[in-house]
Amino acid sequence: MEELIARITQKTGLEASVAKKAIGLILAYLQKEGPANEVNQLLAALPGAEEAIAQAGSGGGGGIMGMMGSLGGGVMALGTQLMGAGVSMGQMQPLGRELFAYGREKAGEDVMGPIVGAIPGLSQFV
Fold first, then answer.
1. Structural domain of 90
2. Which of 23, 70, 67, 102 is closest to 112 using CA atoms?
3. How many domains does the chain have?
4. For residue range 79-93, what is the model confidence (pLDDT) as tens digits?
5. Cα dihedral sign for 25, 126, 112, 5?
6. pLDDT given for residue 59 in this prediction
7. What's residue 62's pLDDT?
8. What Cα–Cα distance (Å) separates residue 66 from each residue in 14, 71, 72, 80, 118?
């Protein structure tokens, strides 16, 4: 996880703590919205992923965000959560691209492709 955080801070300019929270939020979103088998393979390939998800979730996250997700707000709701964590609009795409590139390196395209394909709107951020 430290390697991924370092790559994201370098590409986005985010503080390490913000990058880790953002990673946790994105992985939690993938866990909720993506194909379970592939997401589980991704999480298994990323040491520290479960901890990042747990830490990101400790700040709440239900309420309106959960409602937006269930109403199809999906990626938009994730963007709102990321902004709340301190990620600017301009940092979201580099953050997503770096996270998914790292995922492809660690878990492979056969895992990442179905995840991106299963979540509407996600491809514009990766």
1. 2-125
2. 102
3. 1
4. 999 999 999 999 999
5. negative
6. 52
7. 44
8. 25, 9, 10, 11, 19
Nearest CA among 116, 83, 86 for reference residue 99: 116
Mean model confidence pLDDT for the chain: 88
Please tell me the predicted confidence (pLDDT) of residue 69.
Answer: 39
With bands split at pLDDT 50, 70 and 90, how would you rate the model's confidence at 64? Answer: very low
CATH code of the domain in which 28 resides:
1.10.490
Q: State the Cα–Cα distance between residues 19 and 55, nearest whole angstrom.
A: 12
CA distance 117 to 56: 24
Query: Which residues are within 8 A (CB) of 109 and not within 5 positions of it... i.e. 6 or more apart?
Result: none
Q: Compute the radius of gyration of the chain from its Cα atoms.
A: 13
pLDDT score recorded for residue 66: 42
Q: According to the 3-state scheme, what is the secondary structure of 73-123?
A: HHHHHHHHHHHHHCCCHHHHHHHHHHHHHHHHHHHCHHHHHHHHHHCCCHH
